[in-house]
Structure formats: C-alpha cells, structure tokens
Specification:
GO molecular function, one term: GTP 3',8'-cyclase activity
Cofactor: [4Fe-4S] cluster
Keywords: 4Fe-4S, GTP-binding, Iron, Iron-sulfur, Lyase, Metal-binding, Molybdenum cofactor biosynthesis, Nucleotide-binding, S-adenosyl-L-methionine
Number of strands: 12
Shape: globular
Strand content: 5-15%
InterPro entries: Aldolase_TIM, Elp3/MiaA/NifB-like_rSAM, MoaA, MoaA-like, MoaA_NifB_PqqE_Fe-S-bd_CS, MoaA_twitch, MoCo_biosynth_MoaA/MoaC, rSAM
Distance between the termini: 40 Å
Family: In the C-terminal section; belongs to the MoaC family. In the N-terminal section; belongs to the radical SAM superfamily. MoaA family.
Helix content: 25-40%
Length: about 375
Amino acid sequence: MATAAWGRLLRGARGAASRRACSTGARARAASAAAQELQSSGRGRFVLEHAAPFSAFLVDSFGRQHNYLRISLTEKCNLRCQYCMPEEGVQLTPKSELLTTQEIITLARLFVKEGVEKIRLTGGEPLIRPDVVDIVGQLCKLEGLKTIAVTTNGINLTRLLPRLKEAGLNAINISLDTLVPAKFEFIVRRKGFHKVMEGIHKATELGYRPVKVNCVVMRGFNEDEVLDFVDFTKDLPVDVRFIEYMPFDGNKWNFKKMVSYKEMLDTIKQRWPELEKLPCETSSTAKSYKVPHFQGQISFITSMSEHFCGSCNRLRITADGNLKVCLFGNSEVSLRDHLRSGASEEELIHIIGAAVGRKKKQHAGMFNISQMKNRPMVLIGG
C-alpha cells in the first residue's frame, strides 16, 4: 500500500475515534483496532514516524494548512440582506450547473482525505435546500471529519434543527443584525425576526454551545445596538460576533458605513470596563471578549481593519462548484467541470493543490477590494 494511502487510513482511524457527534461505540472500537493494526505493522510504524502531518496539496506557499472547507449548498435565499445581496436580487445559476448532492459529497470526501477536519455549509440560505439533512448525514460518515457546521439566517432553523442535530450537525452560526423587529425588516427586506429569535433559543435548548450570532455592523443602520447585543449575552450562552462591513458586488459598500472593531470595543468598554479578553486559536478569525458573569461572550471579525490572512486556514466551494482560495480574491477554479469531465481523484487533488499554491499572502486591502470585481456574497457562500 502506498504511503499516502496508509496516511489516509491512519487519519481515518484517528478521526473516527475523535469525532464528537457522529461516532458510535462500534465505529470507535473499529478505529482503535485499525490504529493498533497500523502501529503493529512495520509499514504502519514507518507512517507514524515519517508521514507528513498534513497534505502538501492543502498547504500554500506561505505554509498555511487549510483544514477548514466551506461549501455553499445553494445560491437562493429567503431574505435580501443589504450587505449581502443587491436589492434587485441576483441572476441565479441554472440548476444543471449547480453541484449535485453526490458531487458535494464526492468533493467533501476528497478534501477530508487530504486533511480537512471542519466543513461549514453555507448559501444563499443552506436550510432551504430540500436535502440538507441528508447532506449532513452523509458528511457525518466521513472518517476524520470532526466538525459539521452551518451558517443560516435562522428562518427555517426551529423546524429543521432537531433532525439536523440527529444527523450530526455540530455547530451553528445564525445571522441577526438587529434586535428591533421593524429594523430587521428594513435591513433584510423581509419579515421573520421572531422566527430567527425562536431559532436561537431552540439551538441553546438543544445544547449547542456556544450558538454563534453573526451581526454585521453598519453605520447608520445598527451601530447604536452594539451595547444591546452585548447585553443579549448576559443570560444566553451565545457568542455575538460583530462583523466589520465588507465590500462585495452590489452591496454599495462605503468606508463611511464601516464601523471598526476598535470603535465598537471602545464603546463597549465605556459601559463594561471589566470586559475580559479571551484566548483564541491561532487560526481563529475572531477576537473574543467576555463580560464577567455573563453566560455568553462577544467576538469581533476584523476582516477590514486588522486582517487575519496570515493564519487563514479556509477554502470555499461555491454552489456552482468553483473553488475560491480567498473570500476576497476573484480567481476561481471549476471543480465541477473537472468532475463532470471524468477527472480522477489524483487529478482533482493536483488541481486543488495548484489553486492553493497560488493563494496570495493577504487580500488587497479594503479600498482595493471595493474596486475589484467579485461575486455578490450570496453567490460566494457566507
């Protein structure tokens, strides 16, 4: 057996034993047996001692290891958020050109074999895809995958969450940009505030910790609610993530609308001077804080004012099957076309590796990004 194959078997054995939501006792025992078999064989011992810790195909020229994959399930959305989608909507890709469920699972399996440990399902709005529960269930069977997450606007969450949890969903991000129902309708151009709030509470009831609440802060829209969102964490185990307003096609980005994290932090510290900084993982996009004795916490996603490109570990697959190695980059590679032309697994891996290898050191900066041609956020995958 080739060294790469042994490495994959070893990763699978380790991954199954460590999975939190999907593994069963039988699977864990099988994984343990497989690991012991590898260790007892000469070839297995060699792999343990000499195998590369991470697939070279998912490591870029700056040494960043990409173990986190975001997959967009659909371009459709049941809201029209002002920072995400043009008011007139977007031209949707014909269904025949979108990834099928089997193609999604095929690509996910390939990435997991190479070292991806976390997959986040995005959109559009992923929970309007009819087979989203089945997709989560199939992803859950991939050995080595530790986390299956979803980013949702929360409209359909209460209805679907029990089945999603049973299928193996580990983590949830819910978008909510205001705590005022009337303002909600203005920002997202649709009704549904109470459904989103119900979804947040349902997620906490079902034991998700923390439930991440994504709040895009825009001057003149909701910057006056920052303190209210912090207070929202007092009695709920949520992580309110304040996201700096980012430029995408059609969202009429303007620097004057952007509220930097330092401005928000200063405002919060005036109210809660005891605010504590929390430790974070190297690859984390968030700067996290907590008011002592509050159940939840707050975080800042500082993509514009203090980028975190140096520790980026994320890759994206759009709903139409394009690989984006950078959210703000406009270069894409169609994995769908290669799949449908009969490319082998090895060929796909080399295509992915070449794209990852071309990833730039950092994005072009907020002002340059605002002038670059890129997809609207809804067509990228949030």
